[in-house]
Amino acid sequence: MALVCLQDLSISFGGDPLLDKINLQIEAGERVCLVGRNGTGKSTLMKLLAGEVLPDSGRLLRGEGVKIARLTQEIPRTLNGTVYDIIVSGLGDLLELLARYHAAAFELENNNDDAALAKLAAVAEEIEIAGAWQVQQRVDLVMKRLKLDSETPVATLSGGLKRRVLLARALVAGPDLLLLDEPTNHLDIDAIVWLEEFLLSSAQTLFFVTHDRKLLQKLATRIVDLEAGKLTSWPGDYRNYLRRKAEMLNADEQYQDRFDKKLAREEAWIRKGIKARRTRNEGRVKALLALRRERSQRREKIGQVQMEISRAETSGKLVAVCEKATFAYGGKPIIKDLTTTILKGDKIGIIGPNGAGKTTLLKLVLGELQPISGVVKLGSNLEIVYFDQQREQLDEERSVFDNLGDGNDTIEINGRRRHLIGYLKDFLFTPDKARSPVKILSGGERNRLLLARLFTCPANVLILDEPTNDLDIETLELLEELLAEYKGTLLLVSHDREFINNVVTGTLVFTGNGLVEDFAGGYDDWLQQSLPPPVAVKSAPAAAPKPKKTVKPRSTRPRKLSFKEQAELEKLPAVLETLEQEQRQIYADMADPEFYKSENRRVAAAKARLAELEKELEELYARWEELESIGENREL
């Protein structure tokens, strides 16, 4: 059943339309991820679905009685009351009942008498009659897993904790369609993993935006790509989207190249003059005018961020050594007995829950804080640049240009003098945007500006504290490539598991009670190394010894594909293409509102076939990876 349907919908805020005659249908049970560059209109599309803004043209149809909840990137200024008040504010009819229960429980906790007990019992009976206990349990679970104190006034919380409260409110509301805009921002890894499992187990219909590629891969059943005002739908998971999108972009690039050559050829012909205006050439002139119209309607794609880090003189081989270093606040150990060595060129990821002391660890390792016991030694010739997750290095009232240039029109990058406007274009800031105050920038734009400023400073040690928040996936991947090739030393705090995997060579992991352990590799490597050893199974009492057989050891050489497996591997792409084509056709049929006016049996059969196709494709892709892995191992 379609919960929401957009038909030829457009919206503009001056200039080119953000959304240009788009069509979209969201079915019950789907988990749709919206991808696209910062500034392409993802949040606007979310607001349209939630009914918070109206389109300029087109139709937006919602199923009768469909309830929609949205988690925004922005934090409302009028957010008053306790954490519990905000979380349950989206529960509709149950709000008053649960609020009374919560107040009665709090009163009993602080005033344990018969009157308070009787009041709680009366409210509990009303909840029993209304069948609301499951909702209350959901509220308690979400608050516990997001580490929220129910009685804390929301006004006293940090921006990150306020977003967690808003996420909790969206999760417990139980809407028919849940809209999530960057739900993992300000969550630690444990909370992100829990959120994945919670959303998967709830069978919730989702429409979400995220830069967390692991969460995207695990949750999404369909990818919707927003670019140049147009939506493209890609059935399947994120890996399938990347593969199919690359094929489409390659074909599109070839078409545009042929088109531009033809247009240039026809423009050269028309300039020859009178011959082009003869009657017999009228058809060719009309064709040229059509080519010009098509070219004028083409919307250029947003460019890619161009990043380059200013290089400093090489540091000494040793960057930092910690030997049983301990640091405490108010007598409570934050870092306890830290022992590690960081060498030139190391890329170290720091993993731990919010509040564990990751930023404190950075300051301790870099000598900004002194240990109360143990030793921290720094190497020589260190030039350190720090990326602050709170973005406190930016002046809100000054322009983008002034924040970067500080009164200068040019900067020097690796010996080359650059004008600020040209440099800012590398980070996708137009001249108009460069003159705008920082306070009007989106979160992603602020991060890009901070990176632009950071990379103008010569450094041989980079400290990045949550650099990935609000960046779109393409910019994120470019930053990964840049850091992977960086010759200096990197200390990285991040809750983005894929980013850690792709960048770091080692990790420092908070394991509890101020203890920090040193592991080789990234996030997945840490998980593997931290698994408990297999439990030894106690054998039965030994029987009388039997004569030993000589067992020939199994060869450790990688096996090669059999003839049958090789043939299977060669056929798989064609089989997958056929199944995906059938899948696309079913989605195309279901996108037509007339489809749901047909017999119920046809609708049910289409949904059943989609489920079969999804399972079959998943199995075939797994088989493909297995066969390719055997072939690759053989080559090694």
Descriptive notes:
With 636 residues, this protein is an alpha/beta fold. The chain folds into 4 domains: 2-86 and 150-232, Rossmann fold (3-Layer(aba) Sandwich), CATH 3.40.50; 241-297, no CATH class; 318-530, Rossmann fold; 563-592 and 600-635. The protein has helices at 42-50, 83-87, 94-110, 114-130, 133-145, 159-172, 189-202, 213-219, 238-270, 282-297, 358-365, 400-405, 420-426, 431-434, 443-454, 473-485, 497-503, 523-530, 563-590, 600-635, and strands at residues 2-11, 19-27, 31-35, 57-62, 68-71, 177-181, 206-209, 222-227, 230-235, 318-329, 332-343, 347-351, 373-378, 384-387, 410-413, 416-419, 461-465, 489-493, 506-512, 515-520. A 6-stranded mixed beta sheet has the order 5-6-7-3-8-9, with helices on both faces. The chain has a 6-stranded mixed beta sheet with strand order 14-17-18-12-19-20, sandwiched between helices. Helix 5 (133-145) runs antiparallel to helix 6 and helix 9 (238-270) crosses helix 10 (282-297).
